[in-house]
Specification:
Number of strands: 2
Shape: elongated
Structural class: mainly alpha
Oligomer: single chain
Number of helices: 14
Order of helices and strands: HHEEHHHHHHHHHHHH
Helix content: 55-70%
């Protein structure tokens, strides 16, 4: 075997090339595909003429985030544009999934309406028949409380729905009917209406008076109409604040006006939904109106309802009492069906109000937190010594007052049931407070 000598004339081995020199000599312009455009930041392949990268949102001319996307990302919370697209479907799905709540609303409203009418009618009957002020007062107060329970139950479900929506929940849990809570919410609704009405009245005077002296009665009337419209428009904003832990802004009408104007587009959209729901409910209520118009005179004559002949004039048809009672049942079912349709519509609008609250919570200026205040116990003085309290005496006074109220109420009821013959209190005391024997 022949072995070539080193440095011989047989030729030298190929020299190994340095990798760094190879990369340095590589011309990247020759391997670049000039027919493809990519994002200057993330490298995503772009179509011709595209300025904003669909992946990262970078403007290809400036190399920075596009102004539109910068504003959108700067907004904390959900995208407001999705509210108008999704609120119809989401609200209907919520209402359809809570038909049980709608049925409960219908039943409770019917019971409270019947109880209110019965108590107020009985109070009027006793007043006309015997004129007993204590008994009349008792039934009148109970009738008014049942009447206030109707808007109170609506208020309760409305607040519950908004809170459920803001918590990103699809179902309302633990919905209990408490007649005392419902009546208290009805009184709260009445109080808010009075407070808001006073503020609107004062501001109407201050706004329309200069307009009246400047341009005349027509201008003042137009300004007054705008104020009334704005006072009605604040409803979804007011309910949004009422559902929060701190609701004081809902009681200040100028603040409600300012927030409503700030969110005028979604507020107007909500009222558009309310108009559609109202038209649907109106159709169901028209069925009951037709029945009353056709058969009202017959029912009045057969049942001999005093004072109703003027409401339903006309000659009655030849109809038996059994048929009339069946007709009354049909009317009652029509009334409850109309209430059920309205209840479903209310649930639809409540859910929309909740979505409105969740989507625009930043511009609604909701108050969800309060400044922390250090609690200082009042049971000790500045030296740390316990302070003597009269708590037991106050509790005893409250208990005595409650027992006295119960005692008087029981006597009033007994006075009515026994036609003034029996009382638990002495006869002289009963006569002094108006519980005199009946004639």
């Amino acid at each position: 075997m022949k072995v070539p000598a080193s440095g011989g004339g047989g030729g030298s081995a190929p020299k190994e090339e340095d990798p760094e020199q190879a990369l340095a000599s590589l011309d990247l312009r020759r391997v670049e595909d000039t027919n493809v455009t990519v994002c200057v930041k993330c490298g995503t392949e772009l179509d011709d003429g595209v300025i904003e990268c669909p992946e990262c949102g970078t403007d290809q001319n400036t190399g920075q985030l596009s102004r539109r996307l910068a504003i959108k990302r700067g907004i904390k919370g959900p995208d407001p544009s999705l509210f108008y697209k999704e609120v119809w479907g989401d609200s209907w799905q919520f209402a359809r999934g809570h038909f049980g709540i709608a049925m409960r609303m219908t039943i409770y409203w019917t019971i409270m309406a019947v109880m209110s009418g019965a108590c107020l009618g009985l109070a009027q009957y006793i007043h006309m028949k015997w004129g007993k002020p204590p008994v009349v007062m008792l039934f009148a107060i109970v009738g008014i409380l049942f009447y206030l329970g109707i808007p109170g139950w609506l208020w309760f479900i409305w607040i519950k729905t908004i809170q459920t929506t803001v918590a990103k929940q699809e179902e309302m849990n633990r919905v209990f009917f408490d007649i005392f809570d419902v009546m208290s919410l009805g009184m709260k609704f009445l109080m808010w209406s009075m407070v808001n009405g006073v503020q609107v009245g004062i501001m109407t005077i201050f706004i329309t008076a200069p307009i009246y002296f400047a341009v005349g009665q027509t201008g003042a009337n137009i300004a007054g109409s705008v104020i009334n419209l704005l006072s009605l428009a604040v409803m979804p904003v007011m309910m949004s604040h009422m559902a929060m832990p701190f609701e004081w802004k809902a009681w200040v009408t100028p603040i409600l006006w300012k927030i409503t104007l700030k969110n005028i587009k979604p507020v107007a959209f909500w009222w558009l939904m309310a108009l559609v729901v109202g038209l649907i409910s109106l159709v169901s209520a028209a069925i009951l109106g037709v029945l009353l118009a056709v058969f009202g005179a017959t029912i009045v004559e057969v049942l001999n309802i005093s004072g109703a002949a003027g409401i339903f004039p006309g000659s009655a048809k030849d109809m038996s009492k059994t048929t009339v009672y069946i007709l009354l049942g049909v009317m009652l079912l029509s009334f409850m069906f109309s209430l059920f349709i309205s209840s479903v519509g209310y649930l639809f609008l409540m859910r929309a109000n909740g979505q409105f609250t969740f989507t625009f919570k930043r511009t609604l200026e909701l108050v969800t937190e309060a400044k922390q205040v250090k609690y200082v116990s009042k049971s000790i003085d500045k030296d740390g010594l316990p302070i003597k309290k009269s708590g037991k005496k106050l509790q005893m006074a409250k208990a005595a007052g409650a027992l006295l109220a119960i005692y008087i109420s029981v006597n009033v009821v007994m006075h009515f049931v026994t036609r003034g013959e029996k009382h638990l209190m002495p006869k002289s005391v009963a006569e002094k407070i108006g519980l005199e024997p009946w004639d």
